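Working notes for the structural subgroup meeting. M.R. asked for a predicted model of this chain before we commit to crystallization trials. I am recording the input and output together here so anyone reviewing the notebook later can reproduce the run.

Input as submitted:
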Amino acid sequence: LKLVTLITGVALTSAVFMLSFFYLIALSSLFPILYSDTLVLSLSLCITVLVDFTIFRAHNRVCDLAVLLLGGALGAFLGNSIPTLSAISILGVLAVYDVFAVYYGPVGKIAHIGLEQLRGLSFSFKEVQMGLGDLTFYSMLASRVLVSSGPFFCLASFVGIMIGVFLAFKMLEKKGMFPGLPFPIAFGLLPLIVSLFL
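Returned structure, recorded in token form:
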């Protein structure tokens, strides 16, 4: 468990620094600031330290907010970076793999240990634990739909994702453990696929 916690910490720290740097560079290109490279690097380091402290030391609610923002930012980055057909393929494969991973693979084993022990890997809502990966891929799907198909289809995809999340929560209440990707990804992908044929 200590090794997993260490690997998780390094991965999250790297992700936060990379995302902070990327978004601040994008922001500084819109609003040029003197010595922007130095400022961006300094701010990225400060944000990384702050987020790390929030995730690993702060109260659970504050930690959940940090995980939620991290998942959203990472998903938006991926959604804007990956072409549409590749995104559809990746999300489809991940939704299928999630079923295997939860019931037969590593995700199920981690869930039995307790996701709350691995801070930064999950977001808790009432009694439900949702993985950082789930949040990231919901965000990735919505941002990809926005970029490729526009706000109307993005809204439709968002509604589909929320319906899928609701159904997944209901199944989770009944079974105690349920994959978080298949329903939201299936319903969220429908508007994107429809838009490709219009």
